[in-house]
Amino acid sequence: MNLKPIIVSLSSLLIFSCVNKNDNATEAAPDRVVFKPLDTLVSDEVVNEFYDGLKLDKKTLSSYSSRFTTQKNRHNENITDTIYRFYKQQDTITMFSNATNRFPLEARLANPGSHVVRSIKIGSTKEELLELLNRKEISPEFYITDTERGSIITMVIEDGELVSVRYEAMYVD
User: Which of 54, 93, 139, 153 stands 20 to 30 A from 30 (CA)?
Assistant: First the structure.
């Protein structure tokens, strides 16, 4: 009779039963990934107002530095697409333009006083944001999205004030 498989099985059982299952072991526990909860609000109204506010008039745009790149449209080589980037201190607005339309793709606002939506600007208090959003509380970083475009606005509050806003459009060519 071959006892080797039985001995190996019993040895394995003995070894596994002796493993220390104490959570207070002196060995360092592996770092755990901690996800912070972020509030996600859905508001077509707020996102649309923010989006429309990014379509700056010529007078306002003249106060920004700008760069642009052009390329042939991948679907119709007779059309030229243009990506515009407008810069003003810490603010950046990126817009896409083709023969028929110009629309915001991305925006990052961080200049104190930069207009966000309605009476909200960079530097507005958390309480002003809560009133606009009709909320009692909000996490220090939160999202506002819409059901129409799939756009996302990320707002960050530090020390009770709005310090930055990022807008990202869903664009599929």
Answer: 139
